[in-house]
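Hey team,

Filing this mostly as a record. A colleague (T.K.) asked me to run one chain through the structure pipeline before their review meeting, and I want the input and output archived in the tracker in case anyone asks later how it was produced. No errors, nothing strange. Just documentation.

Input sequence:
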Amino acid sequence: MVFFVRITVNQSHLRPICKSTKFNPKIQRTIYSINFQRLRLHVLGFIRTVVISFLLLLTSVVSVNAQILRADELEKYAKEKYGDKWVDAATNLGSQISLDKNNAITYVQVIQAEGKTKDQLYVLLNYWFTATFNDANSVIKLNDKELGTIIAQGYVADIAQHAGGTSAYNVSIKPVIKCDIKDGKVRVTYTVPCYDVVRMIGGGWMAALGGNQTPPSRSDEKWTLDSCFPFAAKDSHKKTSCKALVMAHAYSNVVMDKIEECLKNGLTGNENDNW
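Output structure:
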């Protein structure tokens, strides 16, 4: 993949500070050189910021390959369901949900599947989980047929991003999905324990404009939900937290719907015992 960056330079950027017709040509050439070097530093800083942002985005696209929805599809779904004003949507959700005793977001839904035994439901769910959570980031933590429990950890990258003055960061989630199986029903528990954040220190727009040549450093962080809006009134990354909450909530809806569809219609939608 190749990118071309076109830079148009106005001659005024290289204009000497002194407009006197008697200005020394040697000094004039020196000032031209200094101004050009300053412009070069700004351009390099801008290109560096663009490249960092693209690499973070590329990582997110690759990381969700085994997921139910890609991050861009999930965002489209979230906007259609909750609107594109993330702060308003998160404020509304905050009035409806609360954190559990571990300061995590947890949703529980019991899905009815009349006429299906525990073993039949287990086979369907085992197949669905195996097909869905099958890479290094999305894994099955527990699969116990006798107990009737399957636990998996998903991974959805790049659900929220921010390019701040001095830093740029991307937010991901690793939701834990647990299914408890009985005859005729399944209890699904969906939990988001925290936000996983990749922060590029020195990768923000201020660093680019300042022509900073120091490579940005990466910092892996975990944002606890009780420190993020709307569960915390003061949040230095409020807008990013708002989008992360709405996206995490939207993903829970998608997971529940996909599991319910699997239990009621089978994996292909045309499965039955008459064959």
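Quick notes for T.K.: Helices lie at 25-63, 71-82, 86-94, 118-132, 205-209, 238-265. DSSP finds six helices and nine strands in the chain.
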